[in-house]
Amino acid sequence: MLSRLHIQNFAIIDSLDLEFQQGFSVFTGETGAGKSILIDAISLLLGKPATEDMIAPGASFAVVEGVFEPDPSEDVWKDVAEFGIPSEPLVVTRKITRKKETIFRINGQSILLKQSR
């Protein structure tokens, strides 16, 4: 479960920190409020290809970081264990730059993006 989300320099968001509680979460708001930007940020965190327009105007990079709490009943945690990552909260970080560089980390350990798919 995604328990925390940090976004910096992403699209129109300078900096944002969200905490999610156990259960069902809904993004609501008027057109143009930024709901799809939050979904794009989460998608980027999960391996979606990055585009330069994801970086806020005037910024040289964007960062999306999420904390995922393990649920042993979900198969994805078995897949994570195959990478040698312990079954504890995972901090997943993705940084993209205007130079088309991507840094992808799980608990501070850099991984290749294609490994995460």
Main sheet attributes: strand count, strand direction, barrel closure: 6 strands, antiparallel
Low-confidence stretches: none
**How much of the polypeptide forms β-strand, as a percent range?**
25-35%
Alpha-carbon Rg, integer? 15 Å
Helices and strands: which structural class?
Answer: alpha+beta
CA-CA gap between termini? 18 Å
**Net shape:** globular
Question: What is the overall pLDDT average?
Answer: 86
Output the number of helix runs: 2
Biggest sheet, strands in spatial order? 2-1-3-4-5-6
Written as H for each helix and E for each strand, in order along the chain, the element string is EEHEHEEE
**Residues in helix, %:** 10-25%
Number of strands: 6
Walkthrough of the structure:
The protein is α+β, with helices and mostly antiparallel strands and 117 residues long. It is built from 2 helices and 6 strands; from the N terminus they run E-E-H-E-H-E-E-E. It has a 6-stranded antiparallel beta sheet with strand order 2-1-3-4-5-6, with helices on one face. The longest helix has 11 residues. The chain is globular and about 40 Å long. The mean pLDDT is 86.
